[in-house]
Amino acid sequence: MPTSRLVTLAAIVVVVAALSLAQTVLMPVAMAIFLSFVLSPLVARLERWHLGRAPSVLIVALLAFGVLGSVGWIVGGQAVDIVTKLPDSRANLAAKLELLHEKLRAPLQLASDALAQLEHADWRPAAAPAGAAPAGAAPATTPSDAPADAPATVASSAPAADSLAARVLGITAGGLGSLFSVVATGAIVALLVVLMLIQRGDLRDRFIALSGGSVVVTTQALDEAAKRLSRYLLAQTAINAAHGAAIGIGLQLIGVPNSLLWAILAAVLRFVPYVGPWIAASIPILFSLAVSDGFTVPLLVIALFVAFELSTNLVVEPLVLPNRIGVSTTALVVSVIFWTWLWGTPGLVLAVPLTVCVAVMGNHIPSMRFLSTLLGDDSVVSASVRLYQRLIVGDVEDAFGLATAERKGGKSSLEVHDALLLPALCLAQRDRLDLVIDEPTLLEVVKRARDLSEELSERRDPTQPARVRSDPLRVVCVAAGKEADGAVAAMLCAVLRRAGFDASEAPPSALVGEALAAIATAHADAICVSQLPPLSFSRLRYVCKRVEERFPGRPILVGTWTMSLDLARVHERLESSAALQVAGSFAEMVEQLERLADAPRA
Fold this sequence. Notes:
Methyltransferase, Methionine Synthase (B12-binding Domains), Chain A, domain 1, 4% strand, elongated
C-alpha cells in the first residue's frame, strides 16, 4: 500500500477516535453549525431589508427557538395527558393481550413440542436402566435428608417503605439530572447559533485561513454545503409538515385521542432517516390498541400510516426532491449506522447534514476525493465502461438495459453506438493489446457487442427513422484489422443501411485482396475503412494505399472511432490524396456520406 494511503487511513482512524472521545463537546458545536446553515438564508433575507446583522439574527433566532419551544410545550402537555389516561386503559390492553395470547397459544405450543422432540432425538443421551446410578455419582438427597438444624433463610428486615422512597428519590434525581443536561445543552446550542450567525463572515474568513487551501475552493465548498443543506431542509420541512397534518387529520377522523401529538411526532421524526417514520407510527398504533375496544381502530391506524408513508416516499418526495442532497442511498444508510454508533441518538439526527458536509469536502479537496466517490450519487465510471464490464462478464440483459436507458434518455440508435458500443470495443481492443484479456475473451466481447448492435438496429427508432433513397450510394465497409474491427464494420453497415445507403461489408481478413474483390463486386461508390484505436498507422496506410491504387478517384473514408485524436493529423499521417476523409464517429461518417450522396456522381 502506498505511503499516502497509509497516512490517509491513519488520519481517518485518528479523526474517528477524536470524534468519539470529544462527543460531549463536539455534538453541541455540530448541532449549532447545522442550525446556522439552516437559518443563515433567513438572516440574509432580513439583512437585505436593511434590518442590520444583529437585529436580523435575534429575530430569526427568537422565531426558530420559539417554534421549537412551542412544539416542545405542546408535546409535553400531550404526554402528560396520555400518562393520566394510560392507567384507565390497563384492563383494556390486558384483555387484548390475553386474546392475542389465546390465539397464538396453539401454534406456539405445536412449535415448542416439535422443537422439544428434535432436541430429544438429536442431543439427549439414551436413558440408563431403571435403578442404575451413574458410576461415581453421589446418592441423591431428598428434602427429608436435610439436617434438622439447618439455618432457615431470614427475610430482609429493611422496611419496604425506605426501599420505595430510595427508588423514588433515585428516579427523581436521575430525571432531574437528565432534564438539566438537556436544558443546558439546548442553551449552549442556542448561544452558539446566535454567535455563529452574527460572526459568520469572520468565522468563514478564519476557516479559510486555517484550511491553507485555495480561497476559491474553500469558499465554493462552504457555499455548496450551505445550499445543499438549506435546499434539502426547506423542502423536507414542507413535506414533513404536510405529512404530519394529514396524519393528524386522519387520526382525528378515526377517533384516536391526542391526534395533535401524533401529528407533531409524525412530522418531526421523519427528519430521522429510515427509523424515524417507524417510531412515529408505532407509538400511536400501540396507544390506539390500549384505548380502543377491539382491533378495528388499530388496524385503521396502521392502514393510515402505511398509505401516507408510501405516498410520501414514492410520489411526493421523488417529485419535490429529485436530487436532494447528492448522497447515494446506500452511503446514507451506512452513514446513519456510523454516526448512530459514534454519537448515539444525536448522531442519528445529525447523520444527514454531517454526511452532506463530508461529501462536499470530497468534491472540493483533492486529497479527500475518495469520500466523494464513496458517498456521492453520481456515477464514478462512464456508461461505456459499465457496458464493457457487462460485456466481459456476459451480462447481456444488463448491457441491453444500459443501451435502452440511453435510448429512453433521448439518444438515437446512432448516438448510442457512438457513446457506448464504440468506446466499449475500444477498451476491449486496448486491453487485448496490453495482454489484460486473452483472445477468446476479446472474441466473446466482440460477439456480444455485435449482437447488441443488431438488436438496437432492428428496433424502431422514432428519433432516427429508416430512410429510403431513390438512388442510394453504394458503400463497402472494410475492416483494417480483424475481430473487433470486423465487428465495427458490420455495425457501420447496419447503421448506414438504416440511413438509406446501399451498404455491404467486406469479409475481415488479413488479405487486402479479398476486400478489393468485394469492392469491385459491389461497384462501390465509396469505401469506408474502419480501425479501432490504438491505431496501427502502418496497417491503415497500407490498406488505404491499396484501395487508392485499385480504385483511383473513389472516395475513401477512414473511421478512427475516437474524437480525441486530431483528425487532420491522422489524415496527414496516412499520406493519402485529398479524396481521403477521416471520421471519428458513426454520426460523422453518415454526415460525410450524405454530402457525397447529394453531390453529382461521375
